[in-house]
Amino acid sequence: xxxxxxxxxxxxxxxxxxxxxxxxxxxxxxxxxxxxxxxxxxxxxxxxxxxxxxxxxxxxxxxxxxxxxxxxxxxxxxxxxxxxxxxxxxxxxxxxxxxxxxxxxxxxxxxxxxxxxxxxxxxxxxxxxxxxxxxxxxxxxxxxxxxxxxxxxxxxxxxxxxxxxxxxxxxxxxxxxxxxxxxxxxxxxxxxxxxxxxxxxxxxxxxxxxxxxxxxxxxxxxxxxxxxxxxxxxxxxxxxxxxxxxxxxxxxxxxxxxxxxxxxxxxxxxxxxxxxxxxxxxxxxxxxxxxxxxxxxxxxxxxxxxxxxxxxxxxxxxxxxxxxxxxxxxxxxxxxxxxxxxxxxxxxxxxxxxxxxxxxxxxxxxxxxxxxxxxxxxxxxxxxxxxxxxxxxxxxxxxxxxxxxxxxxxxxxxxxxxxxxxxxxxxxxxxxxxxxxxxxxxxxxxxxxxxxxxxxxxxxxxxxxxxxxxxxxxxxxxxxxxxxxxxxxxxxxxxxxxxxxxxxxxxxxxxxxxxxxxxxxxxxxxxxxxxxxxxxxxxxxxxxx
Length: 545
Prior knowledge:
The protein has 545 residues and is an alpha+beta fold. The strands form 5 sheets. Strands 16, 17, 18, 19, 20, 21, 22 and 23 form an 8-stranded antiparallel beta sheet that branches. The protein has a 5-stranded mixed beta sheet with strand order 3-2-1-4-5, covered by helices on one side. β9 and β10 form a beta hairpin. α4 packs antiparallel against α5, α7 crosses α8 and α7 packs across α9.
């Protein structure tokens, strides 16, 4: 979930807020795993078999154990389930496999499957499995070498299937490094850790992934056979997935090169959230009701994209004075939300209603709620602070991001989004730079590419607004704004329907060093009453290198 670089950053810079978020997520995962194990242990044989038949490898070991303990015996269908789980490198199934396939005088005795099961357990740092393979290697070297190659192949194929999907990468890099004493690996002196990372065409490198633990069992101390196997398998993967180049290193020395003779241009600096200073946001709550931002503050006339009043001709002040005012929701009558069933609040004029649970706003027709779809019915999509809600306790800082190009206000606990999470949230066309809270509910991303001059920002923003409305035909868009200082930024916000609830987005477009700058903040739609004004403040106060 969190990579070594992020953990090192937390420790080195004493980022306590981030550490607290990480521990909270790890505790949730541990609790979920414990509940899952309790369920398996108490499940009936029939329930476990149904789970296994539907591909639940974790349930397989519990099913086989229950078959044996209840005297049911095993049939060949059960062995097929077990084989499938072991081939998917499931640890608990491999423990049972090593026992079943190693039993003497058993009809299921199978030396190759026994060694394969041990080799899977060995990948999970099982010292007993490693000792069994070492002891058997002298008499069964060819068979164990074949098993090692098979497991390496499974590891690389699984990695390719999960990682090389959707995004376009230029090259791969494999690092085979000798394990150190602190690694907790069995027989660490003979172990090598295989890590692999990818390079995008834009030069960004993914986080390294540890895929495989190789053990030197025989005389091949130079790892020629292992390097040859890795090179062969990755060359096939590269051809199928369009990777143009690749390298394999052993202890820092290049041992193999694939494809193109040139590599992608790599970034000179490492992407990170580097805190520059604390940032005090002056957030206050007002009960004056929601104000529309397209109204002239001088005469009450309508304003255009640039903040110029069509009546008096005066331009509105767009500088950020650091004051963020959140409107308090009004006391209203409770109704039921047709989207989630929670109580909703009826405005005093009885024409609109708002659900603070899912963020949906409704038009009211008599006693019925109509036109309520994922909170998309505000004329102005900024939300009021729900009745009874409290301002969240968020510490803000000013941090250097985008490899030092931009300094912006953000929550103190922001981190670079881990690659695993990046692939889930942005399966295709992921932004180059993504920052997030540890629970990933608030995000900021940037992409800088293509050509764009400062004078063309307004036209580019209008073009992107039209494109976004075509991409998200059901989304509700707010008022587009052209921010003039310190440089031109075209700002728009809109709400889209997520998997289970709405998402509030604040996108902005700017020119940086003659390139197109595209940025976006987003949060859960129900939380936009707090984050929407914070996002706009952060955009208005960005500083550029």
